[in-house]
């Protein structure tokens, strides 16, 4: 599911590290979390949509890998991202 440009811009502005940052690990985790939340709502409304469930699981696994990478690289940034997004860890 494609995200709207306004939503992407607000997420990037919230999680960017410097002025020119658009693809840091924190921004990618935040964008994936937003997409996961949207797809989760869709899957609740449409329980037989198995292709969307598969895509949702791929996004969750990708976010998990990014979080593990961030935890190994910068623990303080990991804690900040978890807190801002309201994830359980």
Provide a descriptive summary of the structure in words:
The protein is mostly helical. It has helices at 5-15, 25-45, 50-73, 75-85. The mean pLDDT is 92. It has a domain at 38-89: Helix Hairpins (Orthogonal Bundle).
Largest sheet features: none
Q: Provide the low-confidence segments as ranges.
A: none
- Count of DSSP helices? 4
The CATH architecture of the domain at 38-89 can be named as Orthogonal Bundle
Order of helices and strands: HHHH
Q: What percent of the residues sit in helical stretches (DSSP H or I)?
A: over 70%
| CATH homologous superfamily title of the domain at 38-89 | S15/NS1, RNA-binding
The proportion of residues in beta strands is under 5%
Task: Give the gist of this structure.
This protein has helices spanning 5-15, 25-45, 50-73, 75-85. With 89 residues, it is mostly helical.
Give the key terms.
89 residues, single chain, mainly alpha, Helix Hairpins, globular
Give the helix/strand layout:
Blueprint: H1 5-15, H2 25-45, H3 50-73, H4 75-85
Helix pairs in contact: 1-2, 2-3, 2-4, 3-4
